[in-house]
Design goal:
This protein has 204 residues and is mainly α. 68% of the residues lie in helices and 8% in strands.
Length: 204
């Protein structure tokens, strides 16, 4: 693998880690704050709602994307492109889920999630307010993951697999062992292994 390919692979790995990290971190932050009316005239309560609660599919998609990124490094050829496509789809799904959460953070879905989370009855006075910038951060992370998947599909064939570093020493050892066997076989036949093979064939 050339220096440019190694540099490109390193940038790709960093981008994958950044995209998955942003999405997972943002999913754990508060995306909405819901103010719910108190029971029997009691004081109102404010319930925070995280992105993972508001959009439950977001965290699994980010984890699947991270696993796909590792699988890209472990595969090669057609399988690498297939896994890259899976990574891109996970990124698109995460971006769509985050975009859905942006609108849901200030709507009835946030109020319903807050009611489930706090085990309080949803009243007519519930009001949801979106909390920024975490929905946008998750959306950006999903876009980055989708782009890394596309890059893996297009340029992944130029990258070496993780097993490549272990394959080469073995191949060299096998070649050396084969050369040693050939030398001993030549000595057993009374042939000088250091002699010119063309000259030896003419003498025969």
């Amino acid at each position: 693998m050339t220096a440019d390919s190694r540099r490109g692979l390193a940038i790709w790995v960093v981008a994958c880690a950044l995209g998955a990290g942003l999405t997972l971190f943002a999913a754990g932050r508060d995306w909405a704050k819901v103010t719910m009316g108190g029971v029997a005239g009691g004081p109102a309560s404010t319930v925070p709602v995280s992105g993972g609660t508001l959009v439950p599919v977001l965290t699994p998609l980010a984890l699947a994307a991270a696993a796909s990124a590792v699988a890209v490094l472990a595969t090669r050829g057609l399988w690498r492109r297939v896994v890259g496509a899976v990574l891109a789809l996970c990124g698109v799904g995460a971006a769509v889920a985050a975009a859905t959460g942006v609108s849901a953070a200030s709507g009835p879905a946030a109020a319903e999630a807050a009611a489930r989370q706090s085990a309080l009855a949803l009243s007519g006075q519930a009001a949801a307010q979106a909390v920024w910038p975490w929905p946008a951060v998750a959306l950006a992370g999903g876009v980055v993951l989708a782009l890394t998947g596309l890059v893996a599909c297009v340029r992944g064939g130029r990258w070496a697999a993780m097993s490549a570093r272990y394959d080469r020493p073995g191949s060299r050892r096998e070649a050396a062992a084969s050369g040693d066997r050939a030398m001993w076989d030549a000595l057993d036949e009374g042939v000088d292994p250091t002699a010119d093979p063309v000259k030896h064939d003419k003498e025969k």
